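Tokens for tRNA 4-demethylwyosine synthase (AdoMet-dependent). Go.
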Amino acid sequence: MELFTELLAIWHSHRIELLVLTGLVLAYFRIYHVRKHEDVASVADSKEKDTGAVFVRTGSKDKIYELPLVRPKVIARQKSEGPKRVTGGRKSSPHKSNGIPKESEEYRVEPVIYYFSLGGSTTKLAEALFDQLSRFATQHVTILKPQMHNIVDVDFDNHFVSPSKASGVQQFYMILLPTYNIDSELTTFIDSLTETHNDFRIDTAPLSGLAGYSVFGTGDKEGWPTEADGFCTQAKEVDKWMARLTGKKRAYPVSTSDVKEAAATLSAWRKGIEEVMLSLSSKQGLGEGVTGSGDPVESDDSDLGGDDSDSSRRKKRKRPSPTADLEDIRGPADLETDFTTIPSSKPKEMVPTISPTYTALTKQGYTIVGSHSGVKLCRWTKSALRGRGSCYKYSFYGIASHRCMESTPSLSCSNKCVFCWRHGTNPVSTTWRWTVDPPDLVFAGIKEGHYKKIKMMRGVPGVRAERFSEALRIRHCALSLVGEPIFYPHINALLGMLHSERISTFLVCNAQHPDQLAALSHVTQLYVSIDAATKEGLKKIDRPLHRDYWERFLRCMDILREKRDMQRTVFRLTLVKGFNIEEEVGGYADLVERARPGFIEVKGVTYCGTSTSAAAGLTMRNVPFYEEVCAFVEALDGELQRRGLGYGIAAEHAHSCCILMGERRRFEKEDGWHTLIDYERFFDCLESGREFGPEDYVGEKTPEWALYGNGGFDPRDVRVDRKGRPKEVEAEKETGKVVEI
């Protein structure tokens, strides 16, 4: 007992010294153990690298040379005095792996055959290929049984935008195509690939998840002996666009054959494909930079500027980009001149057929009419033809999208808006300095171009017959495609021709041409784009070319107020987060009070992802959520009510991220909002020759489903997901970022 007491006393007297000593001993053994482990590891590594020999083939005698042993130096790592630095890198995208999956993944290849045929010969080739690949699949466990599809029967979006994905399986596309010199569904297919590539809403390489692809084309060498004469041009065109959509995953060179030798050529092509699929399934990839192994320029890509085989002489001479604004190419803008001034030289065409602007616009789906007009089929028109919903103009004003033509008589504009979704390829100028096409040529050309595009939709899966028939009779023209419609010197004559066929008109201007706006005759509805509430904000977001842009803008506000008793006037506010949505609503309320428009459309910006927007710092972060647009509209509504201006929130189209406000005195009655338009009444008033105003052609009551808070989707149509599958409309508001198509 006494011993325990003494030990306890010693502990209380020297416990600090004992604890420190114990800690030092433990630290010593810990350091010794770690260093011993590192020495053993370094010795083991050096032993693995010390031995070796090299086998050299000299051409006459083969010798083995022993390599000298070089032991690596072990450099002790010095302890850093500063904070630990963590380094990392951005993970590469899936298509950068060149088709090589991770080692841990089970990997199988599924062949998918696509074909098109009018006479049946290509169908027989596809069936023979299917049978041979089916037998090949039974002999190799890594190759799945093939699929076979006629291009006419597939939904392009499901197969060439968002293909099906399965764990551990990658599809291999094989496309068999004949050659035709007539318009057919094959033309529609090629146009669809082109549009997909140029559509900023879709990923640059939506098919990058494929294992690879290859194209087989047939043609008649007697009729078309060379490619220049048309031999297999459509197959090579498809090959070119597939190279872009897959992210350079051409697994085997495009094969072309005369129809008389197609079976033998197909057999040789198939054997090459089988070898490639086995290589892919064994995780060897497609190769890198080898012609026929993913090289994107095997088919002639010179038209898109991707060919590296040009002479150095071309590099020395600086050439304008195909997507450059004409003002940037030509230099600073000319000083504004009177139209009566005699020009020093003969005016040139705005968009000549040999210009890069013409090439760029046609690749984006535009039909160029004459030298300065254009027409394009809106994606909402395609959606309405298939019963998948119409745009906000149907919810707000009763315009059927499948009967609407989107066009412009002037591809030129006076602004370079940072959010312009027309890819920045339209020409820009402050004055009209080109040749002028007569209005009858423009009118006939835009109708012809629109009807041609509508007829191309006849073979698209899901198109409703009754809507297709209705689409062949244009009832509405949206003069808002690109450029500045009122810039066209004969705009009033063109409007008269449209109205003579009882085609209603919506015209959009950017508030930079007050004289032309003042001289404008009747339109069904007149829009003015309001992208900022201050002079600095307008300069930042619209980038106008006129030096007196703000004075022009305010003059247009005053002119709009003068026209409010003659026709329906609309403010269109485009909200861009980081540019104008943070501005006080008081500035916008000042403009509303000054111009007193009949309606106010507030819409979230549509992100386009072009170089123009990127240079301005515009990204997806600048696209407001729908709930943010709603909050802005409610704040603006409160400010307008505080001022006693008599506006209210009328309707919405959530999918377009768009909300409509209107004057209560004019467009709200006892039974509710009446934002729709009585189009027949409008034409009757116009033909009568008497003065009339917007109240004279107010339409029926706005449908319940279009009112604010109900989403705005037409219940007659079927809402679909990205795969084209029907889905139920959620009762609650969508809060994700939405894009108007």
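The chain has two domains: 100-303, 367-706.
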